[in-house]
Amino acid sequence: MRRPGTVTLMCLQLLLCAPLAGCVASEAESAPKACPSGQIAEGGTCIPAGTSDFTKKQVEDSLKKYKLTAAMAGVWVDGRRVSTVASGESMTGVPVSTDMHFRIGAVAIPYLTTELLKLVDEGKLKLSDKISRWRPDLPHADEITLKMLASTTSGYSDYVQDRKFLADLYKNPFRHWTAEELVKISASKPLVKPPGSGFAYSHANWVILGDIISQVEKKPLAEVMRNEILKPLGLTQTENPSTAEITPPVLHAFDNERRVFEDATYWDPSWTLAPGAVMTGTLEDLGKSVTALGEGKLLTPESHKEQITPVSKVSPNTSYALGVAVQNTWLLQNPSFAGYQATVAYLPSKKIAIVTVATQGIGNSGTENSSTELLVSIANHVAPDTPLSAT
Question: What pTM did the predictor assign?
């Protein structure tokens, strides 16, 4: 079972003018940024002149290279679109398009940690608060903090690794799971690590965190996410339905986890995150959201820094902060679920956002997130001095 939160891997300048004096930019300010030969300026950042063509070729080549049914990618600099491209089919005879909707999985995790940090900014809680304040029923609740949940260092076992859960899920992938069912599985297992001692990915962290946010706000999490995150960020094509529905046009997904290649588009995603944080979106909205994450748009500078500062190591190349992976200063998330694969990345120093999406094809084992390989190839072309790796 691939996890929606697998990890392998954001300046507005105001010119103040004297009254009635007028605002006249200097020649240096108005002149285009000088870039080296073969590069062009986009949003004040120099990128290779052929980035759009390069991205298109990488997407097209990925279909055969990684055995995909469909692939798409987008590149933005300082919020300006450089390229969006799609190749392949959503279904047989139905070409994929960049406006199609799909499940965004773990891309919604930074939405949860952003809302958590907004509550910190509002003085409603502290990251150091023990979760026993809201969930005294959970084991080790008086040892585990909100920050441990947000950095997935609580030590709770991951219910996705539970054999009975997997058997039940594969037996009926359309089953709707409740938060209580999911947390109970993890809570019944011993801790995999002492609280706060290191990275140990568990989907239970996000389910518990979502419940606590809902309790603090005294509203359903879905309402909180829509009003506090999606609307303020202008994510008009992102939705958090309570069912497995996806708004048309739909990017279909295919999966071979049950040892047969089948359409997995409408498998129930309720097990992936907290109810209200299970979302669908588009390539463009993912570009907007990862840019907003990188810029800390909804947070104070202090909370933004907290969100993107590494807490623990995931691998030699990658660390984990609060709901986001960090590698060589890039901010990352890479969900994978039921044949859907995606990776989002943002490089704060150059304001570069990249999003890649893929659907599994025949012959693709699904054990690796192919969209990450695709994103790495684009990122290392656009910003070769700040390279990424897929591990």
Answer: 0.91
